[in-house]
Amino acid sequence: MLIDEIKKANLMAMKEHNADKRAAYSMVISRYQGLLTSGKGGEVKDEDVIAILMKFSKELEEEALGYKEAGREDSYRSTLAQKEAVALFLPKLLSEEEIKEIIAGLEDKSVPGVMKYFKVNYAGKADMSLVSKIARGA
Fold first, then answer.
1. Alpha-helix residue ranges (DSSP H) falling in 16-72
2. What is the helix (H) or strand (E) element at residue 12, kind and residue range?
3. Residue among 6, 120, 98, 8 nearest 52 (CA)
4. How far apart are CA 47 and CA 124, in angstroms?
5. What burial class does residue 25 get, using C-beta atoms within 10 Å of its C-beta: 0-12 exposed, 13-18 middle, 19+ buried?
């Protein structure tokens, strides 16, 4: 499972004394544990872990921009390093062209129809905000 790989990477980061990677992986593991104990039942799948990674990556990107605007260069670099560490475990996302091709082949090109199709068939493999943007413009 993906979470096991992240736990191994966290252990390696600890041995290497890499505080940025350790912070990133520890946060992902913490959010994973939160899902396990949330009381929703069922097991946490790799798709759930990918969703955690994607959300956390976006949060780190926003945080990095805030640090850059505030002139906090050390915090900015640290946050970017954490984002890079998280990106190692993210699957390659579909490109804009690939998304356009998929939408072109769909029968139902309405925004709700496209979003539902991508959520079911491409969860974790496509940036849903990009899919929405293309669907609205297509």
1. 19-36, 46-69
2. helix 2-15
3. 6
4. 6
5. buried
Give CA–CA dist 65/67, Å, rounded.
5
pLDDT in tens, the chain (138 residues): 899 999 999 999 999 999 999 999 999 999 999 998 886 667 888 888 988 998 999 999 999 999 999 999 999 999 999 999 999 999 888 999 999 999 999 998 899 999 999 989 987 788 888 899 999 885
pTM for this entry: 0.76
Task: Give me the domains of the chain, ranges plus CATH numbers.
Answer: 2-87 (1.10.1510.10), 96-137 (no CATH)
- The DSSP annotation for 63-91 comes to HHHHHHHTT-HHHHHHHHHHHHHHHTTSP
Q: Which residues contact 136 (CB under 8 A, 6 or more apart)?
A: 111
Give the residue among 21, 33, 27 at the shortest CA–CA distance from 85.
21
